[in-house]
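Renewal narrative, Specific Aim 1. Our central claim is that a sequence can be written position by position from structural information alone. The example that follows is taken directly from our test logs and has not been curated for this report. It begins with the structure tokens describing the chain, in the order in which they were read.
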């Protein structure tokens, strides 16, 4: 059995539309590619296209939007030229987005499962038609839904993805529960929390019975239960790394990493304005600020967690995969958000994690999602 690790990056602005493409996307993506090239690996950028289509509508009459639009296109072309993978990412709240007084007025439905099949066809076709000539001759084979939202109901989305030649989805992550202004979902008990599976078309959280999921494969993003990770960190405290272990333990005992990122994003957006954000700028899309949401520890390299925490997460995920029998290849999806890589320490942390994996697990190899798709029949 082989262990393949796919590093995937959600390449986007903030979910509420705040931020600049050049600062949150282009600069950190270029630096991340430099880092991965130095380590001898390639990753996958899941590029958010609905946002870019909104910028296109304003680019003709606004030089700033035109520059940001062009920077986006140039970065995607550079990803392909440097041998990285580009796949599809989509946040439906950008459908019909309007620019109002310096802010984006976005939709209030953040879950693709809340859209009709005709709306899904409109969005996905428009995104693919836009992206295809930029990445040619490469093709789109993989998808991640914005905010992880694929339902249930899931059938309409899966059918539209298959209609467009996309056969891999990476939109579920075990242990997440959202109850916010923009999205509600419950992934607290996936049928297959860590391994690829063929999903029920009506409910992407469930393993298909019979042939119900033929044609699409769901690959969960890796996550670790907080209690299991806490136990590993306690071993470090007892076994000789007390300072690093205590720092990691303190972080695990606090709010989830996604909740902290949500709070940080809102504070950052509000600091940029002398007045409060308008009422249409959503402030608690997931439900973390209200205390209604929760997650397991998502393996998101951009989370500001101690490096030791990520190293122990890597150990758990790889050792867990080694216990799997009956599969030729186990794919581990590791997540990242370029927009949250703004400090030198962010890149140092990622380098330390990847170097740990390469040194301790030389049999675990890194692959792009396009490579994963070529061996899809071996995954389930």
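The sequence written for that structure reads:
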């Amino acid at each position: 059995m082989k262990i393949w690790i796919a590093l995937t990056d959600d390449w986007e602005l903030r979910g509420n539309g705040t931020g600049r493409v050049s600062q949150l996307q282009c600069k950190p993506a270029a630096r991340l590619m430099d880092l991965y090239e130095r380590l001898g690996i390639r990753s996958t950028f899941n590029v958010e296209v609905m946002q870019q289509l909104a910028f296109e509508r304003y680019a003709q009459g606004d030089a700033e939007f035109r520059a940001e639009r062009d920077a986006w296109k140039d970065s995607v072309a550079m990803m392909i030229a440097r041998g990285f993978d580009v796949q599809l990412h989509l946040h439906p709240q950008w459908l019909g987005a309007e620019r109002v007084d310096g802010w984006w007025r976005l939709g209030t439905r953040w879950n693709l499962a809340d859209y009709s099949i005709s709306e899904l066809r409109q969005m996905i076709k428009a995104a693919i038609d836009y992206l295809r000539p930029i990445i040619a001759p490469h093709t789109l084979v993989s998808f991640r839904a914005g905010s992880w939202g694929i339902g249930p109901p899931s059938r309409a989305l899966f059918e539209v993805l298959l209609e467009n030649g996309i056969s891999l989805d990476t939109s579920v992550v075990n242990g997440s529960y959202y109850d916010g202004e923009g999205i509600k979902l419950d992934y607290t008990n996936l049928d297959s929390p860590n391994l690829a599976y063929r999903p029920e078309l009506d409910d992407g959280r469930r393993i298909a019975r019979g042939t119900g999921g033929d044609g699409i494969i769901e690959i969960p993003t890796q996550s670790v239960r907080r209690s299991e990770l806490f136990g590993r960190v306690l071993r470090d405290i007892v076994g000789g790394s007390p300072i690093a272990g205590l720092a990691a333990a303190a972080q695990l005992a606090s709010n989830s990493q996604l909740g902290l990122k949500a709070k940080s994003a809102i504070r950052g957006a509000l600091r940029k304005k002398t007045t409060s954000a308008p009422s249409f700028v959503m402030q608690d899309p997931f439900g973390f600020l209200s205390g209604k949401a929760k997650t397991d520890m998502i393996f998101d390299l951009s989370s500001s967690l101690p490096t030791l925490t990520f190293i122990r997460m890597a150990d758990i995920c790889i050792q867990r995969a080694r216990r799997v029998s009956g599969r030729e290849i186990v794919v581990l999806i590791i997540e990242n958000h370029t927009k949250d890589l703004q400090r030198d320490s962010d890149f140092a942390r990622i380098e330390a994690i990847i170097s740990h994996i390469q040194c301790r697990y030389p049999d675990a190899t890194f692959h792009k999602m396009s490579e994963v798709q070529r061996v899809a029949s071996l995954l389930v």
